[in-house]
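thread: overnight batch results

M.L. [08:02]
morning all. the overnight job finished for the chain we discussed friday. pasting input first so we're all looking at the same thing
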Amino acid sequence: MNRVIVLLCLLIIIRCGIDNSRSFEFVYEVELDSTNGKKIEVWVPIPQSNEVQIISDLIINTGGLEYTIELENVHKNKYVYINDESGVNELKRITIKFTVERLEHENVDYSNVDPSNYLNSNTMVPVGGVFDKVIKDNQLSKNNVRGIYDYVFEGMHYGKPKSIDNKYYKDPWLSADGLYGNKQVGRDSVVNLYKKAKINGGNYTFGNGNAIYACDIGVGNCTDYHSYFISIDRTLGIPARFHMGFPIANNKEGIIDGYHCWADYYIEGEGWYPVDISEADKDPSKKDYYFGKVDNNRVEMVVGRDLILKGYELGIANLFIYPLLEVDDVQSTAFTKKLSYKN
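M.L. [08:03]
and the structure it wrote out:
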């Protein structure tokens, strides 16, 4: 009952035109290549309403493929699941369309969220070990979360350099004489680690939300910043969560280039406080804003890590924001995606 009241209040606030809300239509399209009759399985996340966003007018079209809507048990994420033994013999388009009403917000006491579920390690977000040393060496404290935020902000550098001619290899992202992370590596090392990971299928590179990598190397994207923050928080006994969704530009409509993620941490008696350290690093003038507040230019799709999805051969999904596809139980990238929005 309390959850229904909260959602109704949120809807009233939005309908009354409070300027910290935003409404937009979101379209998530996936085109599947032919599998030539081989078995196909597809997983696509779908968002849910909560205290800071209302999802409505959800329409799912799978081009004739049978599907179910499944619930991931630990974090209560929902997703579309397609399992077709006959596969597909022609291009198939999956379209998921919905309306989002999203609030800018500060701390929120979310219903039906148990903080004790967000204290333990994940595969790439460990607790203890090197983070005990980080906490001791930098005098970080459970009673000063702003100090943890500032430490990650100062220690990380936004960049995704896949080669030396990539824009993130150069100023203003990385510099020729820069030394990054606790291992004090140069930008060439960042590129080499990426190439090595691509060859051997490893995860010790940016974009995997690997907190150890973030600590060592100090160059990455939003997944790395917030995994690092969460590992430190949880090591100190502070519940912290990982959120993943999409950023929405201020234009009336457009194509979305990629995902975004952020985090929140729990203070007993007060609720969950959001942080967005990577966005603060991109625009340092908003450093104070993004500690304890996030804007309404986003939609949340998934909460948490190490997701257990029905039928998924790898056992757990480290990150789940783009479609996951298996052909004859083997992971595949034989699809294209298009993400768009319209106010």
